[in-house]
Structures are given as structure tokens and as C-alpha cells.
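Sharing a chain and its predicted structure for anyone who wants a worked example. Both blocks are below, sequence first, C-alpha cells second.
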Amino acid sequence: MGVFMVSLSGMGVGMFVLMMVGMNMIVIMGVRVGQLPMLVEMLMLMVVRMFVIV
């Protein structure tokens, strides 16, 4: 049971890291494409949602 809990928390950390990397990728792609305002708005919404969940 303890091992399952540890793996579960590790999965959560992995998801968080994946989200952060994904957000960075979205920003970089947005800068290249030139649609920064819309992407920044989306990013802010994502951050707000993350804080609401936490």
C-alpha cells in the first residue's frame, strides 16, 4: 500500500513537471508564430486554474 502511494505522488510530480515544460513550449511556439497575446491569456487561465486546484 505504501509503495502505491509513493508511485501515485511521483506520478503527480511528473504531471506537474510535464505541465510546466508544456507551458514553456507553448510560450516559445507562440513567440515564433506571433500570437503571443492569446497564448499569454491562455497561460494565465491555466495558472489560475492550477492555484484554484491547489
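Comments welcome. Residues 2-53 form one domain.
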